[in-house]
Amino acid sequence: MKKMIYRALGILLACGLATGIFVVGKREMDYRKGQADYDHARQLAGVFGQDGEAAFGLGEDIGEGQGGLAENFAEGFSADPYGAGLAKIDLSALKKVNDEVIGWIAIPDSDLSYPLLKGKDNQYYLNHTWKKEHNPVGAIYLDCQVDSGLDDFNTIIYGHRMRNLSMFGTLKFYADIQYWEKHPYIYLAVENGVYRYRIYSAYEAALDKNTYSINIADQNTKKDFFRYGVEHSVIDTGVVPTEDDRVITLSTCTGSGYSTRWVVQAVREAYVCVEEVSNPQGRFVHSLR
C-alpha cells in the first residue's frame, strides 16, 4: 500500500515538475519571440540603440556647444539631439506592417524604446505584439479613447511590467529619485514631430481616481488632478505642472494585485518639428512651457 502511495506521489511530483518546466519554457519562448518582434521594429524604424546620437546616427554638429537635455528651457529654445534623432524614425515602414502604429515611445539611456500602437479597444494589445501576433508580451499602446495626435489633456499609455524588464518593466525604477535624475524625460514621436515630456510623479494609483481621466476642461479639476499626482508621488521631482499643461500617464501593473496600477506621469515640455530636422539650420526644440 505504501509503495502504491509513494509511486502515486512520485508520478504527481514528476507531472508537476514537467508542467513547471513547460510553463517556464513557454514563457522564455514568448519573451524571445517578443524580443525578436521588437528588434525587427527597431530595424525597420531605424532605431539601433538607446543612446541619442549613436541610436539614430546623428552627426556631432547637432547640439554641439548648444546644451543638451539638461538645458534650461525657460530661455525658449535648445538643441536636442535625441529629439531630432527620433524625428527621423521611419514610421511609414512600421505602418506597412501594422497600420495601427501611431508613433514611437522612448526614454533616453534606457531599454524603453518601442513602437506605439492604438487599437480599437484596450484589450487586444494586452496579448498581441505590434505585428498583431499573439504573445503575452503584448505591446505599448494608447488608451483607445485618447486622441492619436496627443492633443488630449491626459494621454494614457499602457504596457506590461515584464519580469525581464522589457516593455514597461523599467518603470518600477522610478520609485528611486536617483533613477529619475538620470532618466527624467519621455519622448513620443508621431508623424508630425516629437514631443518631449518631463516626469513629475510616480505612484500607485487606484483605478477609480482621476489619474485615468482623459479630458478635463474645468481649471479647478485640472489643479486637483496635478495636486493628487504630486502629493501621492513617491519621489519629489520638484516639477509642478499648471492647468495649461498637457500630460501623459504611463500605466502598468504593480506586481502585487489588480486593484491598483503603477503610474509614471510627465508634463509636455517641448516639441521638435519634422520639417525643422530636415533643415540643417533649423534643428531646434520649441519650448512649450
Can you give a write-up of this model?
- With 289 residues, this protein is of the alpha+beta class.
- It has a single domain, classed as Sortase, Chain: A, CATH 2.40.260.10.
- It is 30% helix and 22% strand.
- It contains 7 helices and 10 strands.
- An 8-stranded mixed beta barrel has the order 2-3-4-5-8-9-7-6.
- The protein is globular, with a radius of gyration of 21 Å.
- About 15% of the residues have low confidence.
Keywords:
8-stranded mixed β-barrel, 289 residues, Sortase, Chain: A, single chain, 22% strand, 7 helices
Brief summary:
With 289 residues, the chain is of the alpha+beta class. Helices cover 30% and strands 22% of the residues.
CA-atom Rg in angstroms: 21 Å
Query: Helical segment tally?
Result: 7
Widest β-sheet, arrangement of strands: 2-3-4-5-8-9-7-6
Mean pLDDT metric: 81
SSE blueprint:
Blueprint: H1 2-45, H2 52-56, E1 77-78, H3 81-86, H4 91-97, E2 101-106, E3 113-117, E4 140-142, E5 154-158, H5 177-182, E6 185-190, E7 193-206, H6 219-232, E8 247-252, E9 260-273, H7 274-277, E10 285-287
